[in-house]
Write a structure and sequence with these properties.
about 325 residues; mainly alpha; Rhopdopsin 7-helix transmembrane proteins; 9 helices; 2 strands; disulfide bond; cell membrane; GPCR_Rhodpsn_7TM; glycoprotein
Length: about 325
Amino acid sequence: MENVSNSSGVPPFCNDSVDFYSLTSGNHTGLNCTLPPSEMYFYVDLYVIFPVIYSVICAVGLTGNTAVIYVILKAPKMKTVTNMFILNLAIADDLFTLVLPISIAEHLLNDWPFGEVLCKVIISIDHYNIFSSIYFLTVMSIDRYLVVLATVRSKRMPYRTYRAAKIISLCVWILVILIVMPFTVFAGVFVNDKRKRCVLMFPPPESSWFKASRIYTLILGFAIPVSTICILYTMMLYKLRNMRLNSNAKALDKAKKKVTIMVFIVLAVCLFCWTPFHLSTIVALTTDLRTTPLLIRISYFIVSLSYANSCLNPFLYAFLDDSFRKAFKKMLECRPA
């Protein structure tokens, strides 16, 4: 029997076993708690409430991110460097919410009827969701730091162009694809008791590979980018503080300050949604918790919170950016024929 894992990345808290039915069918980002089949039907919230939550996230996220993509592509004034990164962030979120119904269907069907190719696609996109958001936010943070630095020094940035932002965005996508490639390779359909599951199938020793995949995701998907972002914003705040103290320094203009604040809030919301997910990985690596219904519910909540990040960003743009708000309003206006 091949060793398998019903997780495609960083499972919160719980380990998997091929001898039990996994409650996490349809959730490939890493939630991995199991209960015997005789007990699974008693937990209505796990089989009804959470699919409903996922469906709401899917509907809201797909609508909001599609609106962001439409606005940036259609409105000439929206074609800025920051908005290019926001566009790619919205595309990544849209891609994830677009395939979320397939994961919901697997959860409700208690089976994977979609074949191995689609299994690899779904697990890959789940991981794009983990890595792409934080990497684009890292790039946005670097961009904000360079803007603040140039403003403090009263220098222009001729290299900061819309075309350069396109090239950088493409490089980020290529980097994320390379990072996710190992998960794509190991993804496959495993049959157990006539029930098919879309899982990661690691070679022996499975437990070592499984822990390695958690550490890999934790380091590349959280530790490195978040450390980079924290250092950048610490340096940025230091520069701004010195700028206020220096009477000869040129202050940030209102527009630049608003964009910086927006990027910071979007980043803060992303960390709020994803930090519990990655912290649960540390718990899983350092402790051996017994699977209980409460632990399973907590794990589902953590994954739901990480999923929710894919639908929150459009609302942040609408509330924090005047140009986005005006463009959204114009898009929704009903014009006479």
